[in-house]
């Protein structure tokens, strides 16, 4: 198993300049054609990364794509000016694409026509190897002894033109990805985890887009502290008003109205604009300017009849209840879950793989709440297969879980 000692700060060599320098952003069809020619003539995997403007813009649009390939160098592409980048995908054919935290970037790449035929995820590989820190800078430092600066990771990538130092940062993010991939692949092979990784990468590459979240307003931070349905209606009304405004202005919702302001208004239930703006969370100039719109949303929530108020429990789903309620609702299921969690925690330590990577938490909860009858290894294997577990996971956990369930009183 992997047991390398992470390098100290003095062992790490700062990586400050891309080998080929910082090129111009590709934002014209003619420049894109030249990139296509270079990448078609290149060899080996394609290192890829994408930058969004989370916290600044509405949604998760991609504002910069970085690609690098041996013999082709690095290309920084503007997907706003060039929304169709499929020609690059066609040029590299079935080459493997190397990404860090691929699940974050793949949707944006696919949206712009970049559909990798194969994927290697360096973050997921680091997780399977049991590395303590799996951020790109940490993994590069531990395995390659190089230091990546991360001071621009949370900037507004929708800015145009992009500053030179931001572009340098972006180019460095793909500079050593292929070298890192090779080092990780060696360790996966040595640890007997190469096939595990291959299955995980393919599952990530072919994953379906997530279904729209039911009642997304319930994710407003602090909502769990509210116990009154009328207060929840105010949260819902303000969340929907905020979302409509943010979408129309292409601004991150949190910049339009913070969650803490929504919850404060729901707790206070103001009846007038002066009462609303008396709340400290609504004292800001921009928030006060839009106060009449926020009060209208509150008034509409306050006027709702009882039968249109949101429930305390949230929308019905086909999944099990929250584990904290299991002991009361089904003590046997609660014992199964406790036993299964203890078993997986032990396996996690022995295999140096995080528990959540051994088996998806949702699949485990569903198995423990409504196990197949009988709860033996073959039936458990089929159950988990139907819920997205990979073959390597099933091979590891099905039999031990079946034995553990059988031993329960």
Question: Can you offer a commentary on this structure?
Answer:
Residues 228-308 form the HRDC domain. Residues 302-330 are annotated as: Disordered. This is Ribonuclease D. With 409 residues, the protein is an alpha/beta fold. The chain has three domains: 9-205, Ribonuclease H-like superfamily/Ribonuclease H (Nucleotidyltransferase, domain 5), CATH 3.30.420.10; 216-308, DNA polymerase, domain 1 (Orthogonal Bundle), CATH 1.10.150; 323-406, Orthogonal Bundle (DNA polymerase, domain 1). It has helices spanning 29-41, 86-92, 102-111, 122-128, 136-144, 164-172, 177-190, 194-205, 229-249, 253-256, 259-268, 273-277, 285-289, 291-302, 326-329, 331-351, 355-358, 361-369, 377-385, 391-406, and strands at residues 13-15, 43-52, 62-70, 73-77, 96-99, 118-121, 146-148. The strands form two sheets. It has a five-stranded mixed sheet with strand order 4-3-2-5-6, with helices on both faces. The chain has a two-stranded parallel ribbon with strand order 1-7. Helix 16 packs antiparallel against helix 18 (361-369), helix 16 (331-351) packs across helix 20 and helix 19 packs across helix 20. The longest helix has 21 residues, at 229-249. The two termini are 36 Å apart.
Radius of gyration: 25 Å
Shape: flat
Number of strands: 7
- Spatial sequence of strands, sheet with the most strands: 4-3-2-5-6
The largest sheet, given as strand count, sense and whether it forms a barrel, is: 5 strands, mixed
At the first level of CATH, the class of the largest domain is Alpha Beta
How many domain units? Answer: 3
The fraction of residues in strands falls at 5-15%
Kindly identify the CATH topology of the largest domain.
Nucleotidyltransferase, domain 5
Which segments are poorly predicted (pLDDT under 50) over 5 or more consecutive residues? none
Tell me the span between the first and last alpha carbons: 36 Å
Order of helices and strands: EHEEEHEHEHHEHHHHHHHHHHHHHHH
What's the helical proportion of residues?
40-55%
CATH architecture designation of the largest domain: 2-Layer Sandwich
Overall structural class, as computed from helix and strand content, comes to alpha/beta
Q: What is the averaged pLDDT score?
A: 95
Identify the CATH homologous superfamily of the largest domain.
Ribonuclease H-like superfamily/Ribonuclease H
């Amino acid at each position: 198993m992997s047991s390398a000692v992470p390098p100290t700060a003095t062992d790490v060599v700062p990586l400050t300049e891309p080998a080929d320098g910082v090129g111009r952003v590709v934002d014209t069809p003619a420049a894109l054609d030249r990139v296509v020619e270079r990448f078609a003539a290149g060899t080996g995997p394609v290192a890829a990364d994408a930058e969004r403007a989370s916290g600044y813009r509405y949604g998760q649009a991609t504002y910069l794509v970085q690609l690098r390939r041996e013999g082709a160098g690095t290309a920084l592409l503007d997907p706003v000016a060039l929304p169709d980048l499929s020609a690059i995908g066609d040029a590299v054919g079935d080459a493997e694409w190397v990404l860090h935290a691929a699940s974050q970037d793949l949707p944006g790449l696919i949206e712009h026509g970049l559909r990798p035929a194969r994927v290697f995820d360096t973050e997921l590989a680091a997780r399977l190897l049991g590395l303590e820190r799996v951020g790109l800078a940490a993994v590069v430092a531990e395995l390659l002894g190089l230091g990546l600066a991360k001071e621009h990771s949370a900037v507004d990538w929708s800015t145009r033109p992009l500053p030179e130092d931001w572009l340098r940062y972006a180019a460095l993010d793909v500079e050593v990805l292929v070298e890192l991939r090779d080092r990780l692949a060696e360790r996966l092979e040595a640890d007997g985890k190469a096939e595990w990784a291959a299955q995980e990468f393919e599952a990530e590459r072919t994953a379906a887009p997530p279904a729209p979240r039911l009642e997304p307003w319930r994710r407003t931070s602090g909502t769990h502290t509210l116990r009154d349905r009328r207060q929840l209606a105010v949260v819902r009304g303000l969340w929907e008003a905020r979302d409509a405004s943010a979408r129309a202005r292409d601004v991150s919702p949190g910049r339009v109205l913070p969650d803490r302001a929504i919850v404060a208004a729901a707790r206070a239930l103001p009846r007038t604009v002066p009462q609303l703006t008396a709340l400290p969370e609504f004292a800001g100039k921009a928030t006060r300017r839009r106060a009449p719109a926020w009060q209208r949303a509150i008034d509409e929530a306050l006027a709702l009849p009882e039968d249109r108020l949101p429930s305390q429990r949230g929308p019905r789903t086909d999944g099990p209840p929250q584990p904290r309620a299991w002991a009361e609702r089904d003590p046997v299921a609660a014992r199964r879950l406790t036993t299964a969690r203890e078993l997986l925690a032990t396996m996690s330590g022995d295999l140096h793989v995080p528990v959540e990577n051994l088996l998806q938490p949702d699949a485990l909860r569903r198995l423990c709440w409504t196990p197949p009858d009988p709860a033996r290894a073959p039936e458990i294997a089929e159950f988990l297969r139907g819920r997205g577990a990979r073959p390597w996971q099933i091979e590891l956990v099905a039999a031990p879980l079946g034995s553990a369930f059988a031993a329960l009183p």
